[in-house]
Design goal:
Blueprint (H helix, E strand, L loop, with lengths): L1 H10 L4 E5 L8 H16 L3 E5 L3 H9 L7 E3 L2 H14 L7
Parallel strand pairs: 1-2, 2-3
Helix pairs in contact: 1-2
Length: about 100
């Protein structure tokens, strides 16, 4: 189900997606794969995905796997909205810093 969510959102014109990871204590390789495929789907549509509220363990997994070079992991909804607002003004994703 979550696997199809990205495609469904893009098909409905939703190209800028915030994923709240609050409460996620552990993420499996399947979950990582779904996030990566979803990210690719959204980026190919000219959008972007931002992760927020990642716990320390989840953020460590992203760092070890170097996914922090792909995903923007931000503190909260306000930071994500500001980032995505800037992305939508440029007509596409911003480059990862």
């Amino acid at each position: 189900m979550f696997r199809d969510l990205f495609r469904s959102l893009v098909q409905r014109g939703k190209k800028y997606i915030i994923i709240n990871l609050a409460g996620v204590e552990w993420i499996s390789s399947t979950g990582i794969g779904i996030l990566i495929r979803g990210y690719k789907t959204v980026r190919e549509a000219g959008g972007d995905v931002v992760l927020i509220r990642a716990g320390q363990r989840t953020e460590q997994v992203f760092n070890v796997l170097r996914l922090d070079r792909i995903f923007n992991v931000l503190a909260d909804e306000d930071a994500a909205a500001e980032y995505l607002g800037n992305a939508s003004k440029t007509g596409g994703p911003l480059e990862k810093e």
